[in-house]
Design a protein that fits this description.
The complex is a heterodimer of chains A (328) and B (335).
Chain A (H helix, E strand, L loop, with lengths): L1 H27 L5 H5 L6 H11 L5 H14 L1 E2 L7 E2 L6 E2 L4 E2 H36 L4 H15 L2 H15 L15 H35 L2 H8 L4 H13 L1 H15 L3 H7 L4 H11 L2 H29 L1 H5 L1
Antiparallel strand pairs in A: 1-2, 3-4
Helix pairs in contact in A: 1-14, 5-6, 5-8, 5-11, 5-14, 6-8, 7-8, 7-12, 8-10, 9-10, 11-14, 12-13, 13-14
Chain B lengths: L5 H10 L17 H11 L1 H18 L1 H8 L40 H37 L1 H16 L2 H16 L8 H32 L2 H8 L4 H9 L4 H25 L10 H8 L8 H28 L6
Helix pairs in contact in B: 2-13, 3-5, 3-13, 4-5, 5-6, 5-8, 5-11, 6-8, 7-8, 8-11, 11-12, 11-13, 12-13
Chain lengths: 328, 335
C-alpha cells in the first residue's frame, strides 16, 4: 500500500510539473508580448519597459519560471508597483485588476466550490441511484423513464437548461431571486436560494450520464457468476445487490466522477456565465479577454491541481473498493 | 460517454418488439460483417428516425445558398422597422411571421431562421472536420503504440495522460486569442475562416486521446492472435501488418467513436462560442445566439428556444444514431 501511494504521489508531481512548465511556456513565452495586456491604460515605451523590468521579462525563461515557482512555495518580493512583498502562495500581480492574483483567487474560488460540491453530491446520488434502480427493475416503466431521461439529458446543453430554469423559476413563477453568491457562513438560506438553480442544471445533465453508466455497469455485474453464487448461498437480496454487486459496478463510475468533479472544480465557465456568477471559470474568461497573463496562468495551474488531485483520490478509492489494485 | 452494448439491447426491446421471427425461415446466405451491420441498422427504428433527421440537417447545411435565395433574407440584414421602441420584436413569440419563421433578434433585428441555417452549416463543418482529424491522429498513434509497444508505447501513453490533465476549456480559451493575435494585429478583424481553422485545430489537439486509447487497447488484444503471428512469420512488413492485418479488425469501434465524436464537437464549438472565444458575432453560430439571448430571458423568452431546441435535436440525433451504430456493429449484440 505504501509503495502504491508513493508511486501515485510521484507520478502526480511529475504531471503537475509538466503542466506548469507547459502552461508557463504557452503563456509567457509565446511570441505575443505579454506586457501589452498587462500595462495600464496610458502606455508609453518607457512605462512598458519598466513593467517589463518589474516582471523580470528580460531574464532568461528558466529563471523566470524558477522565480514563479519559488513565489508559490515561499513567497517573493515583487516590485513596489506590484504591491511589494507577496506572501507564500504567491501567484504574481495582476495589472488589470491591480491586486495580487492570490487575492482574486481567494475571492472567486469559494463561488466555484459552492457551485460544484453540492451539485456533485446531488448528481452522484441521483445518477447512481437511478441507474442502480433501473438496472434492478430492468424493463419496468421506471427503467424506461430512466433511459429516456439519460438519453435526453446527455444531449441537452447546460446553457439551454439553465436558461429554461431561469425563465420558469425566476422570471415567470418568481419563486427564486436572480442567482447570486452569498457566503455560506454569512447566510445559508441566501446561499442556497442563490445557487440552487445552478446545482439543479448541473445535476440534471451530469446525473443523466451517471444513470446511463451505472445502469449499464450494474446490468453487467448482475449477470456475473459471483452474484448468482451469493444469491444461491442464501444471502438476502439487499445484501447481494447493496454490497457485492454495487462494489463491483461502481468502479468505473468512480473514475468518471473523479474526472468530472476535478474538472468542474477548476471552473465551471458555462454554468457561471449562464447564471451570472463570478467564479473561477468567469475569472479565467475575463483574464483571457483582457490578456491578464498572471491570472490566466494561476487559473490554469489551479485547475490542473484539481484534476491531478481528483485522479489521486480516485486511485486511492480504487484501492479501497478493489483489493486487487492494492496487491497488484 | 461510454456505455456497454447492453443499453442498446434494452432500447431495442422497447422500441421494436415486433421484428423477432421474420428471419427464421430464410435460407442461409453468406454475409460480410459490414452487410450484417447494415441489415441490423435497417431494422432498427431508432437508427432510421435519427438517421433521417441527420440527413435532413446535413441537406439543410449543404443547401444554405439555395435556402437563402428562396427565403429572400440574408444573415446580416436588419429589420429595425419590425422592432418596438425598446428594440423588442413586434408580435408574438419573438416576432414570428410568414416572412420571419423563427422571429427576429431583439436589438439588432436580424432574422433568426437564416442565421440558424448558417450556424448549422458552420457547426457541422467544424464538427466533421475535427472528427476526421482526431480519428486520423488517434488511429495512427494508437496503432503505433499498441503494435510496436516498448518505449514508444510509454511515451505516447504519457502524452495522452498529459493531454487529459490539461483543462481543455481554459487552455482553448487562452490559446484562441493568443493565436489570433499572432497572425492578426490587435485591431484587425480576424476572418471567420481563420477562427474556424483554429477551432478545428484545437479540437484535434485535445480530442485524439480517447480514440488513441481505444485503438491501442484493441490492437494489443489483436497483437497476440494467431493470424497476426502467421502474417508476421511469413515476413509481412510493418505497413502490411498495420493496414491489411490489424486495422480492418478495428474499424467498427473507430466508426462508432467517430460518430459519437461529432456531437461532442458540435457541443464544444457551441460552448466555446457561448463563452465568447470561438466564433465572434459576425459569424452566425448557436453558441453565440444563446449567449445573446440570455439578456432577453425576461423580455423575449422565445429567442432562446429556437437555437436551444435545434442544437438539442442535432446532438440528440447524433447520439442516438451513434448508439444504434454501436449495436449494429457489435456481433455480440443479441439482435
Amino acid at each position: 500500500m505504501t509503495r502504491f501511494l508513493i508511486r501515485r504521489l510521484l507520478s502526480a508531481a511529475l504531471t503537475l510539473f509538466a503542466v506548469s512548465v507547459l502552461s508557463f511556456l504557452m503563456f509567457f513565452a509565446l511570441p505575443r508580448d505579454p506586457v501589452t495586456g498587462m500595462c495600464p491604460k496610458n502606455c508609453n515605451p518607457e512605462r512598458l519597459e519598466r513593467v517589463r523590468q518589474e516582471l523580470g521579462l528580460n531574464d532568461p525563461l528558466i529563471s523566470q519560471y524558477a522565480g514563479y515557482m519559488k513565489g508559490i512555495v515561499t513567497g517573493r518580493d515583487l516590485g513596489s508597483a506590484q504591491g511589494g512583498r507577496c506572501d507564500a502562495p504567491c501567484l504574481g500581480w495582476s495589472y488589470v485588476s491591480n491586486e495580487a492574483v492570490s487575492d482574486t483567487i481567494a475571492r472567486v474560488l469559494p463561488v466555484t466550490l459552492s457551485i460544484v460540491i453540492p451539485a456533485a453530491i446531488l448528481w452522484l446520488l441521483l445518477g447512481v441511484g437511478l441507474g442502480m434502480l433501473s438496472a434492478l427493475r430492468r424493463g419496468s416503466w421506471l427503467d424506461r423513464a430512466a433511459i429516456g431521461f439519460s438519453l435526453t439529458g446527455a444531449s441537452l446543453q447546460l446553457y439551454f437548461v439553465g436558461a429554461v430554469l431561469l425563465i420558469v423559476f425566476v422570471y415567470n413563477l418568481r419563486l427564486l431571486p436572480v442567482p447570486s453568491y452569498t457566503s455560506l457562513f454569512d447566510d445559508p438560506l441566501k446561499w442556497t436560494s442563490g445557487l440552487v438553480l445552478a446545482w439543479l442544471a448541473l445535476a440534471f445533465l451530469f446525473s443523466a450520464i451517471y444513470a446511463r453508466l451505472s445502469r449499464a455497469q450494474m446490468l453487467e455485474t448482475l449477470s456475473e457468476d459471483f452474484v448468482r453464487t451469493a444469491r444461491a448461498k442464501g444471502l438476502a437480496k439487499s445484501q447481494v445487490y447493496g454490497r457485492h454487486a454495487l462494489r463491483a459496478a461502481i468502479t468505473p463510475v468512480v473514475t468518471i466522477a473523479g474526472l468530472d468533479v476535478g474538472g468542474a472544480l477548476g471552473g465551471t465557465v458555462i454554468t457561471e456565465t449562464t447564471f451570472g456568477l463570478n467564479g473561477m471559470g468567469r475569472t479565467a474568461v475575463d483574464a483571457v479577454r483582457s490578456g491578464d497573463l498572471p491570472t490566466i496562468m494561476a487559473t490554469v495551474l489551479i485547475a490542473a491541481v484539481f484534476v491531478v488531485l481528483a485522479n489521486m483520490v480516485v486511485d486511492l478509492l480504487y484501492a479501497v473498493i478493489d483489493p486487487r489494485v492494492r496487491l497488484g | 460517454m461510454s456505455l456497454s452494448p447492453v443499453e442498446g439491447v434494452a432500447l431495442a426491446e422497447i422500441e421494436s418488439p415486433d421484428d423477432g421471427d421474420e428471419r427464421r425461415d430464410k435460407e442461409f446466405v453468406g454475409r460480410s460483417p459490414g452487410q450484417l451491420a447494415l441489415a441490423r441498422l435497417r431494422r432498427d427504428r431508432t437508427a432510421l428516425v435519427s438517421g433521417a433527421l441527420l440527413v435532413f440537417f446535413v441537406l439543410v447545411a449543404l443547401a444554405v445558398p439555395l435556402i437563402e435565395a428562396l427565403y429572400g433574407v440574408g444573415p446580416k440584414e436588419q429589420f429595425q422597422s419590425r422592432l418596438d421602441g425598446y428594440g423588442m420584436p413586434l408580435g408574438y413569440a419573438g416576432g414570428v411571421t410568414g416572412d420571419h419563421w423563427f422571429g427576429l433578434e431583439p436589438g439588432l433585428g436580424r432574422d433568426i431562421f437564416i442565421r440558424m441555417v448558417h450556424g448549422l452549416r458552420t457547426s457541422l463543418f467544424i464538427a466533421f472536420a475535427a472528427a476526421v482529424l482526431t480519428a486520423v491522429i488517434g488511429v495512427t498513434l494508437g496503432t503505433l503504440a499498441g503494435y510496436l509497444g516498448g518505449w514508444l508505447d510509454s511515451v505516447i501513453n504519457w502524452i495522452t495522460d498529459l493531454t487529459l490533465a490539461m483543462p481543455f476549456l481554459i487552455i482553448a480559451l487562452a490559446l484562441m486569442p493568443t493565436v489570433a493575435l499572432r497572425f492578426y494585429g490587435q485591431r484587425e478583424a480576424v476572418p471567420a475562416s481563420f477562427q474556424i481553422g483554429v477551432l478545428i485545430a484545437i479540437f484535434a489537439l485535445f480530442g485524439w486521446t480517447s480514440t488513441a486509447r481505444l485503438v491501442r487497447g484493441q490492437i494489443i488484444a489483436l497483437r497476440e492472435r494467431e493470424f497476426v503471428e502467421a502474417a508476421r512469420a511469413s515476413g509481412a512488413g510493418l505497413g502490411h501488418m498495420l493496414f491489411r492485418q490489424l486495422l480492418p479488425n478495428v474499424w467498427a469501434p473507430i466508426l462508432v467513436a467517430f460518430s459519437l465524436a461529432v456531437p461532442q464537437y458540435i457541443t464544444s464549438e457551441a460552448a466555446l462560442s457561448f463563452i465568447g472565444v470561438g466564433l465572434t458575432d459576425a459569424t452566425p453560430s448557436f453558441g453565440r445566439m444563446i449567449y445573446r439571448s440570455l439578456d432577453y430571458l425576461q423580455t423575449d423568452p422565445a429567442y432562446v428556444f429556437f437555437p436551444g431546441i435545434t442544437i438539442f435535436a442535432l446532438v440528440f440525433a447524433f447520439n442516438l444514431f451513434g448508439d444504434a451504430l454501436r449495436d449494429a456493429l457489435d456481433p455480440k449484440s443479441s439482435r
